[in-house]
Design brief:
By secondary structure, the protein is mainly α. It has six helices and two strands.
Length: 215
């Protein structure tokens, strides 16, 4: 299952994470009463970890494309040389998970202290699920849709930027080989670099053709 689709079904995991965090806080303060703000922060932090995995894969694709472009530019000796990280700004404006207000309070129970953390965590999961399960699921569904849209838009932008450089390099190689300005070894090196460009190009195109399909 790809990561953006997995966000649709992440509500249960977010609730488990928040419940575990709540139980941990009670180890230092058995009288603590935790409200919606605490749980909201923990749930949104757990969602941010999932977002980070998506961002990491997009960043990897951008860096791979940037490295191929920079290597070819150096070989061609042109003045328009992108840095390897020039394409990373496609990561801007990544959406954030927003749960909204969460109205509830949970205090540690006397039985919880007797039966241990595992039982306490399960109890809290049920309480959160009953009080806010629908709200959390709805927020996860919205976040999955906007994340998929962001991935599609980001790879379209990345493809466009990549092509603007790669097309110029292909044209430059064509002019150089037509004028017979290269030795055989240099021409072969250039063609290998352009083959690497084609590989990066096809990888980005595949992601664009399968929106959100980050596995």
């Amino acid at each position: 299952m790809n990561l953006t689709d997995a966000l649709l079904d992440c509500a249960g995991g977010l609730i488990r994470t928040a419940a575990g965090a709540l139980v941990e806080t009670w180890t230092s303060d058995r009288n603590a009463v935790r409200g919606g703000a605490f749980l909201k922060a923990r749930i949104e932090a757990a969602a941010a970890e999932k977002s980070a995995r998506i961002a990491s894969l997009v960043e990897e694709a951008a860096l791979k494309s940037g490295r191929a472009l920079a290597k070819t530019a150096r070989t061609l000796g042109g003045e328009d040389r992108p840095e390897e990280d020039d394409l990373l700004d496609v990561l801007k404006d990544m959406p954030r998970f927003d749960l909204g207000n969460l109205e509830m309070e949970i205090a540690p129970g006397a039985i919880s202290s007797l039966l241990g953390r595992r039982w306490a965590r399960a109890r809290i999961e049920r309480r959160i699920g009953k009080a806010a399960g629908r709200q959390i699921s709805a927020a996860a569904s919205v976040y999955a849709r906007v994340s998929q849209a962001w991935v599609r838009r980001t790879f379209t932008d990345l493809q466009s930027r990549f092509d603007s450089y790669a097309d110029a390099y292909r044209a430059q190689l064509g002019r150089l080989t037509t004028n017979r300005a290269l030795g055989l070894e240099e021409e072969q090196a250039l063609r290998e670099d352009l083959a690497a460009l084609a590989g990066a190009d096809q990888g980005d195109a595949a992601r664009q053709d399968a929106p959100g399909a980050i596995t």
